[in-house]
Every structure is written in C-alpha cells, then in structure tokens.
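Problem 12. The chain below contains 226 residues. Write out its predicted structure in token notation.
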Amino acid sequence: MDQIQFGTESFALNAENRCFCVLLLDTSGSMGGKPIEQLNAGLVTLKDELMLDPLAQKRVEIAIVTFGPPTELLSGVTAENFIAPSLQAGGDTPIGAALLKGLDIVATRKAAYKAAGVKYYRPWIMLITDGSSTDKNSNEWTDAIAKIQSGHAQGTFAFFPIGVESADMAELAAICPSVAPLKLDGLRFRELFKWLSSSMKAVSQSKPGDKVALENPVAPTGWASV
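Solution.
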C-alpha cells in the first residue's frame, strides 16, 4: 500500500485544525485467522464512518503502526485520503518498541503542525493487542512505560489501551496506571472503530483545548466487556 506523506504544501491546501490518532495494532502470529480478518474489517468501518462527516474528513488524521516487528504503515493521512490496509498476521509482540515508535510519530506530527501554524487537538494513541509483550525485560519497554505515563499525565496525548481475547490485561493496566484498559467484547472491532470514529468526529468539531465528553464504550450496544 502506498504511504501518503503530508508536508507544508498539503497544509496550505487544508489548514483545518488536526485531530491526530496513532493506532498501534498487534499483528503478531496469534492474531491470525478470524482476529486479523475482523481487525481489517474494522479499519474499513473507520474509513466509512469518518467519510460521513465532511469536517472530520479534513480534520481527522490517522497513523498506523503494526507490530511485530514495529512497522510504520502510515505516518499521518487525513480521513479523506485514508485507505484501510489489508493486514497480515505474523511475528512477535514487542509492545515497548511499538509504543516508542508511536510516541516518535506523535512528536514528529506535532512539530509539523507547529511549523505550518496549524492548530491541533490533543493526539490520541490507541494500543490494540491480544497478547503479552515480548520485550518487557528490555530498555525499550522501560523507556516506553516512563514516556507513556509522563506524556499522558502532562496532557501531551491521550492513551487508550485495548485488550483482545487472551491479552494480558494486568500488563496493559501497568503501562499507564491512570488509564484502565478495556477488553474488547469478542472480536467486535467494527463497533470499536465506530466508537473511535464517533469520538474523533466529536473532538474535531470542538475547539482545540475544549473538553469533550466521549460516548461510554461499555454499553449493551458498545464494544467493551466488563
């Protein structure tokens, strides 16, 4: 899939406020079969839902990192230019390295916004995994945890950890203790990405810095289990 890069020229054509979201997607071997199929379908739903809102098309930007190994699939594209990738399962689960790559993408994107004079909302980092990190005894893991906790506490970004099927929920909770991880109800990726789209559309229609109440994902028609 072609990667679409944004630079100062595109900012000149589209100077709308930006609502940036980095998706850190576990594509390790354990996601093979039905899970990866449903994840791919969910990404199509994300595109479709965002395209229903003309303002969100121009304001919402998506970046994708798959792991493992951590691979930057998209560095940041507006919803109108987003093409849902067809992900393949394979590899391990280096969550620490994936988090660091996501943090780097956020920092790079914010620097680009500032250089272009484009206003932006607090970026989101959403981690979706069905396992346990294979690099939790590494310096990358320690560094990532410290940066996630510090950045979230300072409001540099919002962090959303999501567990799928056999995910280690205790490990997800330890990444950022101030953020309770949510467990996906079965493989309801479509519902998850509908919620994400709805939430990002709500944020994109506000003013940067405003607090926006998000729809509760834990509901009979939602995507998270309790």
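Discussion. The first strand starts at residue 19 and ends at 26. Students who got a different answer should revisit the alignment rule from Section 12.3.
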